[in-house]
Structure formats: C-alpha cells, structure tokens
C-alpha cells in the first residue's frame, strides 16, 4: 500500500516531500511553521498579509503607530480614501519578514510566501508590486498567488531578476480561472511552476459562491484541470487543496497524478501555528454544526469560520487608519458602509452590532476571526484529551510525519 512518502514533488532537479503547508494570514502560518515544513523536506508558507503589523509584533518596528499618527485626523471620517500606505514601509516590512525567515531556513525544503490579491490596500497595483518585488529580493523560494485572479501579477514581476528562477504558482478553484490566468500571461513566455487547485472545503476565503460551494468537489475540479493541461500539452505540477485530512486522502490524489498536496487545517492546532492556544482549543472543541460559510468578509468572497468567532456581529470602529488593507482602489471597504448604516440607525447606542460585514483587518490581526477548514470538527480525533478536558496541542513535525507516513486512513495520536 502506497503512502505519501513514496512520491516526490519535483521542481527541476530538486525533490521534495510532496506536502505543502498552505499560507494562513495573518501570521497563522508563522515563520516557525514554514521553517518546520522546510526542515522536514516539504514546502512551508509564510503569508504577506498585513506585514507591517506582523513586523511590529515580531521585529519591534513601529509601522502601525506611524501610520495611525499620520491619519489620526481622519478617524471619525467615513471617507477613508486619503488613508494610504507608505510604500517604503510596506517594502521594509516585507523585506524584514522574508529575509529573517529565509536566514533561519534549515533542511532541504522550501519556503514560499502567500500573496493575496484581495489585499488591495487603497492602491492595488503599486502595493502588490512592492510586496512581490520585495519578497523576491529578500530571497523567498517561491510565491503563491491567491485570493484573486492575479491577471496582472506576473507582469508586475517581469522586470525582477528572479522572475524566471523563483517558483511562482497560482491558486485556482476552477479550470476557467486557470484558463484566464494562462491566456493573460501567454505573451510572457513564462508558465506558473505549480497550480494549487483549491476546493470548497478549504479554510480562509473560498473561490465559490455562498449558495453553491457544496455542489463542487475537489477531485472533480482537479481532474478537469489535469485534462485541460493534457489538452494544452502543458506539464505543470498540480497541487490539490481543501479537505485533505489524512495521509491516505493525500496518497489518493498523488496516485491520480497530483504533484503534491496543500494542507492547512491540521496544522492550526500545532505549537508552531500563530493562533493563540485558547483559540486552538476552540478549534478542537468545534462540532460540524459549529462551522459556517458566511459573507461577513468585506472582500466579497465567502469565508469559512467558527460560528462563535468574536468577529461576527462585532461593531468596532473601522480600523483603516491603523490597517486599511482591504480598502479598494477608491479607498472603499464594505465594512465601512455596514458600520455607518448601523451607527445611523442607532445614534444613541453605546455599542453597535454589525452582523453582515466584519472589520476583517482588525479581527484577523487580533485572531478574533476564527477562519478554519471544513474538517476542523475532526481535529479532536487527531489528539488526546487531557485530564482537565482540554486537548493536547500537537507539533508540526508530528502532523507532517502523520501525513507523510500513515496508511489506511489512520491518524497517529501524539506519542504513537
Ligand atoms: C486558518 C486558515 C487560514 C487561511 N488563510 C489563508 C490565506 O490567508 N490565504 C490563502 O490563500 N489561503 C488561506 N487558507 C487556505 C489554506 O492555505 C489551504 O489552501 C486550505 O485550507 C487547505 O485545506 P485544509 O485546510 O482542509 O487542509 C487558510 C486556511 C486556514 C485553515
């Protein structure tokens, strides 16, 4: 019987364990988690979401304070179009996070950075260009383009000296999205080095509609992508993601021609993951009915999360002067409208409730939006319950090895 370790992900001459830990913003997929994946011979991701605030927390910079100081005058203004990022600070925070992580890398694996197009930052092109260029300059092994179609992202990197040597990939949820990306970039004479096909059971934002995500199935989409690539005579590694919970799940995709798998949920309850330990216990405790896909994210994409996420219903003042990562090209975010509507409807209320949208920047930054994969309710079966009723936090190495070596749909408990 085959297991994941019988397969290898190949990038040119380099061979890796075909396990990629997916990017999880904001610093849920930490450098420590990515470094473990690389040490164990696989691929880890850091995330480039909100790096100025991540850098403040990790490297003692003051980017958020400095931005807030500049825009304090605007705090009570519902028009946030004046709130811009200093591109130099975006560059510096990216450089810091990527270079510190890459300097610490050990082992034969790789570290990629997950870069979401939906982080439009009130100047989509300019900020995205800086994020991509700085990550490449700081020596990241690869970039995974996510949360958006990224039709212009390769062009934004074309003039970077590492454009053809870094591993550049894209996450898609349909053949159509892949076709669009390939067509748009045909003239660059540079194909993606890998394609992550993310199905409807993943964590974070979903590339499916709120009402129809359950009608889609990862295996079907992966097969369609394989077929399309065969028709086009393209040999690009395909990496399925979303709901691959056991080593056997992973092996079945590898046997059908996948180059690797991308996984995340099982690593959300490991020491190296960025979630606070009490939040990990919420993930362990969750039952199937405690998880929902909703549209509270102002990005417009549905998002999966625990129903008891503190972000849901929270009516905090929009945090754009400090953060503002989701402001679109016109300085607009759907949460601002929802918040203003509730303030106008309840002028005397001390505390406002906003049910339909959430201030995602603030809540993701504070680990108050508990986004998770569909199978989060199975996490309790991956560990032991302790005497006090809490669940034992795992190590990334344990979970990685369980994916790598297990067979028969077995999940090894810690210590096994
Ligand atoms: C807590 C959490 C946060 C995530 N955040 C991001 C993100 O910021 N960007 C992204 O492209 N994908 C994100 N994802 C998706 C994962 O990278 C991955 O593709 C997917 O969750 C794999 O499915 P699995 O969780 O069932 O293993 C996130 C997933 C989780 C569980």
Automatic annotation (TrEMBL):
CDD domains: NPD_like. Pfam families: NMO (PF03060). The keyword NADP does not apply. InterPro entries: Aldolase_TIM, NMO. GO terms for molecular function: dioxygenase activity; nitronate monooxygenase activity. The keyword Chloroplast does not apply. Transmembrane segments: none annotated. Keywords: Dioxygenase, Flavoprotein, FMN, Oxidoreductase. PANTHER family: 2-NITROPROPANE DIOXYGENASE. This is 2-nitropropane dioxygenase. It comes from Sulfurimicrobium lacus.
């Amino acid at each position: 019987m085959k297991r994941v370790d019988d397969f290898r992900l190949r990038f040119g001459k380099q061979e890796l364990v075909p396990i990629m830990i997916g990017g999880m913003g904001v610093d849920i997929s930490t450098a420590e988690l990515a470094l473990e994946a690389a040490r164990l011979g696989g691929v880890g991701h850091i995330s480039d979401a909100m790096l100025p605030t991540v850098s403040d927390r990790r490297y003692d910079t003051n980017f958020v304070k400095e931005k807030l100081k500049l825009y304090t005058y605007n705090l009570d203004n519902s028009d946030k179009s004046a709130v811009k990022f200093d591109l130099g600070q975006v560059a510096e925070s990216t450089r810091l996070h990527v270079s510190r992580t890459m300097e610490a890398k050990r082992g034969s694996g790789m570290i990629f950075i997950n870069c979401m197009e939906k982080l439009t930052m009130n100047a989509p092109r300019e900020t995205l260009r800086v994020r991509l260029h700085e990550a490449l300059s700081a020596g990241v092994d690869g970039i995974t383009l996510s949360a958006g179609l990224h039709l212009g992202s390769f062009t934004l990197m074309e003039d970077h000296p590492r454009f053809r040597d870094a591993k550049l990939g894209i996450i898609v949820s349909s053949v159509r999205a892949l076709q669009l990306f390939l067509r748009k970039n045909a003239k660059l004479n540079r194909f993606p080095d890998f394609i992550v096909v993310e199905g409807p059971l993943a964590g974070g934002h979903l590339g499916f509609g709120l009402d129809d995500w359950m009608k889609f199935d990862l295996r079907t989409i992966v097969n369609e992508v394989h077929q399309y690539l065969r028709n086009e005579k393209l040999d690009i590694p395909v990496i399925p993601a979303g709901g691959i919970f056991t080593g056997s799940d992973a092996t079945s995709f590898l046997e059908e021609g996948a180059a690797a798998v991308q996984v995340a949920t099982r690593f959300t309850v490991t020491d190296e993951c960025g979630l606070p330990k009490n939040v990990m216990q919420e993930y362990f405790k969750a039952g199937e009915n405690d998880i929902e896909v909703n549209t509270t994210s102002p990005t417009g994409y549905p998002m999966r999360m625990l129903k008891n996420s503190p972000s849901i219903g929270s009516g905090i003042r929009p945090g754009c002067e400090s953060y503002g990562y989701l402001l679109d090209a016109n300085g607009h975010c759907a949460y601002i409208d929802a918040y203003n509507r509730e303030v106008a409807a309840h002028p005397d209320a001390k505390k406002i409730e906003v049910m339909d949208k959430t201030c995602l920047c603030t809540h993701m930054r504070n680990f108050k939006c508990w986004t998770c994969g569909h199978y989060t309710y199975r996490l309790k079966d991956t560990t032991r319950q302790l005497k006090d009723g809490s669940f034992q936090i795992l190590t990334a190495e344990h979970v990685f090895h369980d994916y790598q070596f297990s067979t028969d749909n077995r999940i090894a408990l810690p210590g096994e």
